[in-house]
Write a structure and sequence with these properties.
CATH architecture: 2-Layer Sandwich
Oligomer: single chain
Largest sheet: 8 strands, mixed
Distance between the termini: 45 Å
Number of domains: 1
Number of strands: 11
Length: 291
């Protein structure tokens, strides 16, 4: 209207309004790409240290801080539901609940192996080391979603919780670990003081993992047909974080990279996620949560 009438004030007002809504429009575009049933759900993020010894455990702790930073910037609520501390430094593993719209839709872009290259702070000779950690993400499914799993199909172990949590948590067998015997899938929870509550949460996590397992099996069949299978295993990293001899974070699936490693490790991951989602949507129509 401003252009038609030659009204500069109206044109300036329209341009300012467009700039103001641009971030919301971009978010709406990204969320429109998340067409799978569970994309809108909360998520459970799991980080496990891999090859690299104590450096890998320290790297897992760095990834934990990175994702907590991303969640805070994105406005998500988080809760650590299980954690194994390494006796010297870092963590062996951690499970984090991330609560908010499209948490799973965004975080599924992070599934895979993450590689760190740096001068090791644990090497007296200050040599460069490479460390690996894996990231897995499952949707936090609603209780009304039907996923059949019988108690007879699982092994249930109780044990004493480790880490922070107070005297009661650390002196009773309140932690629960459930192993699905047919698949070997494990879900564990030690976040609550009550064994009953930990058991209920572990069952919910197991059902979510079994759901994810079925999605991955379906995608594996599609990938086999297309000869484009991308496995998630040690050595097949999806992203490299190089701090020495130069500084760069590069996603090996999309080619997206940045030299601002400090910002990425502080949680600036949105661009990496959006590039992956955009390319994936254009390439395969959003068929897989783990591709």
């Amino acid at each position: 209207m401003g252009e038609e009438e030659g009204d500069q004030e109206t044109m300036d007002e329209g341009a300012a309004a467009l700039r103001a809504i641009a971030p919301d429009m971009r978010q709406a575009e990204i969320e429109q790409m998340m067409s799978e049933e569970m994309d809108v759900n909360d998520a459970v993020l799991e980080i496990n240290s891999g090859a690299g010894g104590i450096d890998a455990c320290d790297w897992a702790a760095m990834l934990k801080r990175m994702y907590l930073g991303w969640a805070q910037k994105a406005g998500y609520k988080v809760k650590i539901v299980g954690e194994q501390i390494h006796e010297d430094a870092g963590i062996k593993s951690v499970q984090i609940e991330v609560v908010g719209p499209y948490a799973y839709g965004y975080l599924k872009s992070e599934i895979g192996v993450h590689r760190l290259v740096r001068i090791s702070p644990f090497d007296a000779q200050a040599r460069r080391h490479t460390a690996f950690a894996s990231v897995d993400v499952t949707p936090d499914i609603d209780d009304n979603i039907e996923i059949e799993v019988a108690e007879s199909e699982c092994r249930i172990d109780t044990y004493r919780a480790s880490g922070a949590g107070g005297q009661h948590v650390n002196t009773t067998d309140s932690a629960v670990r459930i192993t699905h015997l047919a698949t070997g899938i494990v879900a564990a929870c030690q976040a609550e003081r009550s064994q009953h509550k930990n058991r209920a949460k572990a069952w919910k996590m197991l059902r979510a993992k079994l759901y994810q397992h079925e999605l991955e099996k379906r995608q594996a069949e599609i990938d086999a047909v297309n000869s484009e299978k991308k496995s998630i295993e040690w050595g097949s990293q999806i992203r490299s974080y190089v701090l020495q001899p130069y500084r760069m974070v590069k996603d090996l699936r999309t080619g997206h990279e940045t030299g601002n490693t400090d910002k990425v490790l502080a949680g600036e991951l949105q661009t990496f996620m959006e590039v992956w989602l955009t390319q994936r949507s254009g390439n395969d129509g959003g068929a897989s949560p783990a591709s």
